[in-house]
């Protein structure tokens, strides 16, 4: 049986997939519920809303590289379970505080900062775990299935998040997010495949191990341009996302449920991408599709700036449709390429380096979005973010990637 047809027949991958889906759904609920809670309930300013996302992602700058070196020394599964349980407790504190009437922006900042630390550990362990669970030929279909979770969560979570905030309040919606993390932890606990503890280094040296991951990425002709382009994309995507909810509420005058429904319609492109990525990669080549998907992301972010009331809402739907489609293709291909070219003993460090460069840009981008939105306005900020993201594809097009069709058979070694 072919790998793409049999991957969900793998019992423990199916459990990993179910846990990931639940966690992704909860996270998507919070992505809409938290800024709406800040805007509608706590009357936060544009800069204060942007700081929420900054707090949530700041841990990547502080711990991202350390997490990669650490994950290469330990079993991933216990890290995943502990991180999910910790996030469940943190997000449960928000509806409890709201119930007693003591919820503040300060609490949101603290919760998101601590949850961000756990998310760093979870994400690094999660991207390092599939090579320990699956065979090499199962990685692409496995990553496609996990990326499909992003797609489903993006569509269902976006629509459900807006509706739940409208019906139940943002605080209660975050309580549902807490339950999703708890349920995810239970699924992860049910995985039975033994995970071998990595062999300890002969002379453990955390600084040297982190440097090994950085050196591998920046000396690799394939990974370096991917990492730099992804960092640029995340920087300006975060800037746009930091002001998007404020823009839709205060300038386009949309209700929470309308924001959710429009996001759900547009993000349908992500589901399509998760289904067709492997087929497109086989037909046109994974490197070529990576270049096209990166370009699509930049175009999509630029088109968001055209959003307005009435018929101009079609720009928001079309832009999110294209963004969802392109982001998922890029995610699947970049993850699969990294896992295929990276030695097993460097998976955690290389994954953390790539994540550090991308997610480490997120808090800076969120803060940048808040500053630009306050100084120049919300729509100009969206234009700046979109055009800058599109310009970042130069990292790919000016690299050796532009002459390649596919990774298979390409002469792209680890060093220049």
Main attributes of the structure:
416 residues; mainly alpha
Topology of this protein?
Blueprint: H1 3-6, H2 11-41, H3 46-57, H4 59-71, H5 76-99, H6 105-128, H7 130-133, H8 139-168, H9 170-189, H10 206-219, H11 223-250, H12 256-266, H13 268-284, H14 286-303, H15 313-341, H16 347-359, H17 361-376, H18 378-391, H19 394-397
Helix pairs in contact: 2-8, 2-9, 3-6, 3-11, 3-17, 4-6, 4-10, 4-16, 5-6, 5-9, 6-16, 8-9, 8-12, 8-13, 8-15, 10-11, 10-16, 11-14, 11-16, 11-17, 11-18, 12-15, 13-14, 13-15, 14-15, 14-18, 17-18
Strand content: under 5%
Instruction: Specify Rg, calculated over alpha carbons.
Output: 20 Å
Terminal CA distance:
39 Å
Q: What structural category arises from helix and sheet content?
A: mainly alpha
Supply the number of helical segments: 19
Mean pLDDT: 86
How many independent structural domains?
Answer: 1
Shape: globular
Describe what this molecule looks like in 3D:
The structure is a single chain. This protein has 416 residues and is mainly alpha-helical. It has one domain: MFS general substrate transporter like domains (Growth Hormone, Chain: A), CATH 1.20.1250.20. It has 19 helices and no strands. The protein has helices at 3-6, 11-41, 46-57, 59-71, 76-99, 105-128, 130-133, 139-168, 170-189, 206-219, 223-250, 256-266, 268-284, 286-303, 313-341, 347-359, 361-376, 378-391, 394-397. The longest helix has 31 residues, at 11-41. Mean pLDDT is 86; it is low at 408-413.
